[in-house]
Design brief:
The protein is α+β, with helices and mostly antiparallel strands and 688 residues long. The strands form ten sheets. Strands 5-13-12-11-10 form a five-stranded antiparallel beta sheet, with no helix packed on it. The chain is globular, with a radius of gyration of 29 Å.
Amino acid sequence: MSNFQEIVNLNVGGTKFATSWHTLTWVPDTFFTALLSGRIPTVRDETGAIFIDRDPNLFSLILNYLRTRDIDLNDVNLRALRHECDYFGITPLSRRLALCDEINHSSCGDVLFYGYLPPPLNVPIPGSNNGRNSATVSRKNSTASNAEGTVNRTHSRNSSLDLRTVGRIPSQDQLSRCGRGHSRAASLGNAEILKGLRSAEGNTWNENMKVQIIKAHHNWIAVAYSHFVIGYRLTDSCGWYVVFQSPVQDSPIERIALNAKSGSSATSSGNNNAGTDVMLGISSGPLVRLWAFSTHAEPVRRTLIGTFNLGVRVEHLLFVGPQLVALSGGGGGRSKAGVWHTSTQHWQTQDVPQLSAHDTAGSFLLLGTAAGTINYIDMQKFPLRMKDNDLLVTQLYKDPNQEPITAISVYLTPKTNLCGNWIEIAYGTRYGSVRVIVQHPETVGHGPQLFQTFTVHQSPVTKVSLSENYLISVCSEYNHVRSWRVTRFRGMISTQPGTTPKAAFTVLALEAPTAQAHNDAGPYGEQDEEQIFIQKVVPDTDTLYVRLASNGKRVCTIRSVDGSGVSCFVVAECEGALRPRRLLVCGHRSGAAQLWDLTAHIDRAARPPPAPPTDAPAPRAAPPGEGEESPVGDGGPSADELVRLLAACDLDAAPAAPTARPDPAPAAPAAPPLAPAPPTPRAPDRPA
């Protein structure tokens, strides 16, 4: 076929095309040049046309480009078209489409992007002496063995020298903390260089440097890798900067807890005359290590408070005030609780009824059990019984059907701080029930009283949240969410007009069971404000969906600025100079952490829609029994987004489906695991 004018007949996916040899071959080194030169074997149909098993609609766009060297991209799926261009090797068009995609996805992020914390340059190796023998850690060398690494490791949200206050010159201390001459672009450049240097180490380095866990408290975040933890602090003048690093651990870190106590002179403007004391706890297996970091002045002083043994694997690690609490809900009916008390410097463990849920309220730790009881520990009282080795675990309430309690949420009404006995508790059970119990002044002396029961779930309830305005529950069936609007009178939950259904939707998340604790969908947020879900659909993805917990409405979509997959995330409530900020902090497989400011978008999404014009027709009245809102269809990923995400997920490797709810429920049901496993994925019949 040497004649440029020779006609070539093609059958692309069942659609016939006729074009010239020259049209198909003017771009060199493509699929067509190889096909027409005989380097690729051809298959012909009954008419003799060359058969190509591709999408004819997309092929028609490519063929039109080869004919006219121009293309109309209106109503075209750019991702699919670019994939076809890559297949056929049409490099000029593929480059144009790639540029269009890059323009829409800047490495500087969008308006939500708040900061980038690059991975550490020097990777501590377990068993070495790096960071293990020194009790003094300086801000300038807390994550590096030389001064050179300091500049690249400390990072400012904006420029390195933040001069937003007119006429104000940063001090030398601020310059050293911010890292002179550093910017996010430089950090990304270092990361690219390191990729080439570490490629030979392959998966081992990637697993060690992947961010495993992120915890936040006040204006502090702790970023945990496999064997060490780095602590960052936020100030308005310098943004985020490194303050401390934990010693390198021989065993992989499984849980961490962070507690930051702000001093009276430590403000968000960066003036830390009194400083901020930080406590960091980590656990590996049954062992818990606790450090205190004194950040009043240079150098930062690190003190190992102690290494404690719970006796069983630690499944939850948290602070209740300044007290460190370790919990285990092991099988066989054996659970343990361990508490380190600040004032007495005493570690105490005790066997407790099998734990299946927990929550905190002030100085109280509430424990839900597989026997259907809610117990509590008062952290301020149990030191009085240290001689008896008793944590004073006290039963508060027992479920009327003795259903195992799998989720619990405590709401302290505004009067609680004055009289201490106005408390409301919502809890979910293994058999799908959601109950609300209350203890108001008129019920003091009789214990909490059952207020409401909802039986809308057919799978175990995994999450429940009771806030000022809403009651939200989540079950294990693809994270199916139900929400109700709560009516209050003088701060207390009321029956007039009562709790009304708000919405039903699904927060689909196909996360591996071992990673669920660090990829918790939520809900996140204080109980007196709008709460949100963070939806991570598949394990290895760079995209998160932020949704309102009350109705499932999508607030925004978060995409990694460097394309790396999200390995963990948390929502941090940070104090600012003007107003609090709600930040989404994402840990990535590249070892970096990325921050996104959700404050304005949440406020905008939660704002009620504008009132319709006075001459507009009245809206249709809801039928009897219908809630305020139907299931929200624009909240989670669209059908196209969901298919694209699921293409990278192995659905055959998902956990098994949960056991159906028995009917009737036995009097003494079997104990569930501490965290019910999600069902086997199938095509959801609710909006994702």
